[in-house]
Write a structure and sequence with these properties.
The chain is an alpha/beta fold. It has 3 domains: 3-164, Thiamin diphosphate (ThDP)-binding fold, Pyr/PP domains (Rossmann fold), CATH 3.40.50; 184-314, TPP-binding domain (Rossmann fold); 338-512, Rossmann fold, CATH 3.40.50. The protein contains 22 helices and 18 strands. Helix 22 (490-502) links the parallel strand 17 and strand 18. The longest helix has 16 residues, at 132-147. It is globular, with a radius of gyration of 24 Å. The protein binds thiamine diphosphate and magnesium ion. The site of magnesium ion has 7 residues, from helix 17.
């Protein structure tokens, strides 16, 4: 068996059975090995940012890693922005990146570059597998690294000769290292802090859905503290029956007002809140000056244990948490407004949907009505690097074929990685994409004002308007093999929404707004 074969067998026996791929010549022995194992699902992505974003979406919904297969430094670099988003989301991703043979690297061939440098820019763990016998143990170590600390980005660089030369066999994956836990004194201090009026428990990561959210909800009910999530999160359970969790805001002033009465913040699985950007004369930190912050449990620590310990310490074991009620709006009608779009979405969103939200300015009005819609998981662009939504929806839909995935996309954001539509069509994924076609980078118009620029002219307008020519989303979707329809008022939108939610396979709505 060669090194490539030993790696594929290590992946499969280690529980990694999906690979989002965009290969090249240096990966051909690995491709041949994958080809011998139909039990490995290989998903072709027509741009590396689709592969890395899909692996992120997969992790968010499965809670376990998928692999990507990428081509040397340029291939990995093309996937970098979505690896950044994955890293910020706390998603585990295993990148396998082919490289030249060692002797070929001595010469400056076209694709030779600083592959390790590119990897270190975003990976928690990088290793070059230097020879065939090392490939399987390095692969096993990479899997372990990607699963550790609640999910990390691990990159294994597979030199071509290490893939084709003789190897011993697959290697077993060692159990993940135990996660750090806060000591008892910190748990006691956190419980005391949360009992004070004006206290906030800020949670993130796996604490925002499932049983951990329940525990956090019980702690809030018992202590009376506010339960808050960051503005952009990896995955949050929302809708009727979900634990009541507030969310930080995007706008600096809104966040300052939101936290104005805060007397202390306990962090559990979350980083301290910080504004998205820094603006002249505005604070970076939103909490009141001097507000104590207690870091109970970092995002890579044992969040489940920490919440359980906090629940025990506060006596929050039997109390019922506050939950969102159900309140489905009437189906709206008439000209399009974003409030009505929110009502239509809230009325029709099916139970247990996965909503990927990269609609930027358009998604804000959707948040209120969907809070009391049928329960769904919402996934955000955690690292703020747009071009995440369609790839993430692709990976999430593959991870959860029995659920309906809905991608809410700004027209600017959707253009970054629209090749995802082709993968959705090829894999026949139940993804409904809604493109909010406001024909521009709407958010940047506001941001120019936010930094203090009072008016703008032709150059700025030409950098904000996505017009002239107008993007034809129906044609773009059809060109990628996805059925699509344009909606110019709310009646057309609800009709298209019903149709798209019932479709077998992907569907796209261009909502002119
Ligand atoms: C990788 C990356 N490049 C650029 C940006 C800056 N940026 C933030 S939002 C945005 C435009 C978003 O446009 P769209 O998706 O249409 O949403 P809208 O603002 O119109 O609601 C840009 C270019 C970014 N966040 N990430
Ligand atoms: Mg736009």
């Amino acid at each position: 068996m060669n090194g490539a074969e030993s790696l594929v067998r290590t992946l499969l026996s280690g529980g990694v059975d999906t690979c989002f791929a965009n290969p090249g010549t240096s990966e051909m022995h690995f491709v041949a090995a994958l080809d011998r194992h139909p039990e490995m699902r290989c998903v072709l992505c027509l741009f590396e940012g689709v592969a890395t974003g899909a692996a992120d979406g997969w992790y968010r919904m499965r809670g376990d890693i998928a692999a990507t297969l990428l081509h040397l430094g340029p291939g990995l670099a093309n996937g970098l922005a979505n690896l950044h988003n994955a890293r910020k989301a706390g998603s585990g991703v295993l990148n396998i990146v082919g490289d030249h043979t060692e002797w070929h690297l001595a010469n400056d061939s076209p694709l030779r570059g600083d592959l390790e440098g590119v990897s270190r820019a975003v990976s928690h763990w990088t290793r070059v597998s230097p020879d065939a016998p090392s490939v399987a143990p390095d692969g096993a170590e990479a899997i372990r690294a990607a699963r550790s600390g609640n999910g990390r980005v691990a990159t294994l660089i597979l030199r071509a000769h290490a893939a084709w030369e003789k190897a011993a066999g697959p290697a077993p994956v060692a159990p993940s290292p135990p996660m750090h836990r806060p000591d008892a004194a910190l748990v006691t201090a956190a419980a005391r802090a949360l009992a004070r009026p004006g206290a906030v428990l800020l949670i993130d990561g796996p604490a925002l859905h499932g049983p951990l959210a329940e525990t956090a909800g019980r702690i809030a009910a018992k202590t009376g503290c506010r339960l808050i999530a960051p503005y952009l999160v990896s995955r949050i359970a929302r809708g009727a029956g979900a634990i009541r969790i507030e969310r930080l805001k995007y706008v600096v002033e809104d966040n300052v007002a939101f936290l104005a009465d805060t007397t202390g913040i306990v962090l559990c699985g979350a980083l301290r809140p910080v504004s998205f950007f820094s603006y002249p004369g505005k604070p970076s930190l939103p909490e009141p000056p001097g507000c104590p912050i207690l870091d109970l449990c970092a995002p890579d620590m044992d969040i489940a244990w920490s919440l359980d310990a906090l629940a025990a310490e506060t006596g929050a074991t039997a109390i019922a948490p506050a939950r969102m009620p159900v309140d489905l709006p009437e189906i709206p009608t008439g000209p399009t407004t974003l409030d009505k779009v929110g009502d239509a979405l809230a009325a029709l969103l099916p139970e247990n949907a996965i909503v990927v939200d990269e609609a930027v300015t358009s998604s804000r009005p959707l948040n209120i009505p969907t809070e009391t819609a049928r329960p769904a998981d919402w996934l955000h662009v955690s690292g703020g690097a747009i071009g995440f939504g369609l790839p993430c929806a692709t990976g999430a839909a593959l991870a959860c074929p029995d659920r309906r995935t809905v991608a809410l996309m700004g027209d600017g954001s959707a253009m970054y990685t629209l090749q995802s539509l082709w993968t959705m069509a090829r894999e026949n994924l139940n993804v409904l994409t809604i493109v909010f076609a406001n024909r521009g980078y709407q958010i940047l118009r506001g941001e120019l004002a936010n930094v203090g620029v009072e008016s703008y002219g032709r150059n700025a307008a030409r950098m904000f308007d996505v017009e002239n020519p107008t993007l034809d989303w129906v044609a773009l979707a059809k060109g990628h093999g996805v059925e699509a329809r344009r909606a110019t008022d709310i009646d057309e939108f609800t009709k298209a929404l019903r149709h798209g939610l019932a479709a077998e396979g992907p569907y796209l709505i261009e909502l002119v707004c």
